[in-house]
Amino acid sequence: MEAFKQNKMELPKQAYDDLMSDKWLFGRGCSDMKGGGSIQLSLIEEYSKEEDFNGNIVLISVPDEENLSAGMRGATYLLKDLKEKYNLNYILMLNSEPHERGNDLKPTIYDGSIGKIMPVVYVRGKLAHVG
What we know:
131 residues, mainly alpha, 0% strand
């Protein structure tokens, strides 16, 4: 970030303004899967402190989001097996993948992505991130 701040690397004006505001982290992957994983682990830690928490938490972590979600699609079999073995009733799924939003105080909630919940028209091309 210091190299960016010293303008040793050229940034678009909006990105440079964001950098100088100190409201953003800059670095490859720092706010992508690593950020999402940190959020999930922090939430599990917080819920583990709740004395009256009623329920279970299942964490599925997959390293292949850029491969048409093969890991998550494969994990559905595990989730089904766990549901049957332990009589679970899944009521909520959170995808803690950081994402774009127009207003810092209003989160955007997605209810699926390619290969999981939403119907999709498949067009062959270069693999790219959901954003």
